[in-house]
Task: inverse folding
């Protein structure tokens, strides 16, 4: 059992026990996190839906990311990842979201954002305050396209589990 499958088993346990639903908004991973989750039988009990928002237009149309934010910050940025995480929650019935946007390569990198740069956001909506609570992070992964995508998926799932367990956001 690989790393992702182990963490998914733990996520399934805690989400089912607490009646939590998860949604994803994925760009560079192209739905890999949703695929890994739904590889597990019974994931419909805790996985609500996934959005593959690969293009900027998809981010805008599917989950309401502001076009000006993308222009100002760039699609690969923590503010855009945060907007993706909140947008996924707004367009689903989920309690928690994962958002991923990055440069998996082999092309597309720059000096400021080299290949392997991936921005993450995890969010949930506090029903009492009606406010979003979120955490963002940027990582630089090493490897080819497949490795960057797999590391991103594994990392996002591991962090979500830690967030839920430790109530970090």
Result:
């Amino acid at each position: 059992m690989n790393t992702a499958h182990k963490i998914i088993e733990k996520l399934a346990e805690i989400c089912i026990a607490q009646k939590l639903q998860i949604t994803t908004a994925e760009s560079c991973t192209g739905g890999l996190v949703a695929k890994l989750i739904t590889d597990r039988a019974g994931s419909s009990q805790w996985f609500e839906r996934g959005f593959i928002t690969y293009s900027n237009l998809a981010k805008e149309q599917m989950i309401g990311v502001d076009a000006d934010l993308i222009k100002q910050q760039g699609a690969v940025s923590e503010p855009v990842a945060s907007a993706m995480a909140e947008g996924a929650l707004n367009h689903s019935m989920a309690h928690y979201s994962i958002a991923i946007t990055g440069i998996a390569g082999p092309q597309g990198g720059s000096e400021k954002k080299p290949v392997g740069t991936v921005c993450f956001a995890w969010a949930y909506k506090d029903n009492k305050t009606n406010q979003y609570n979120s955490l963002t992070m940027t990582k630089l992964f090493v490897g080819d396209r497949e490795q960057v995508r797999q590391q991103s998926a594994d990392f996002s799932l591991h962090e979500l589990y830690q967030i839920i367990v430790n109530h970090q956001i």
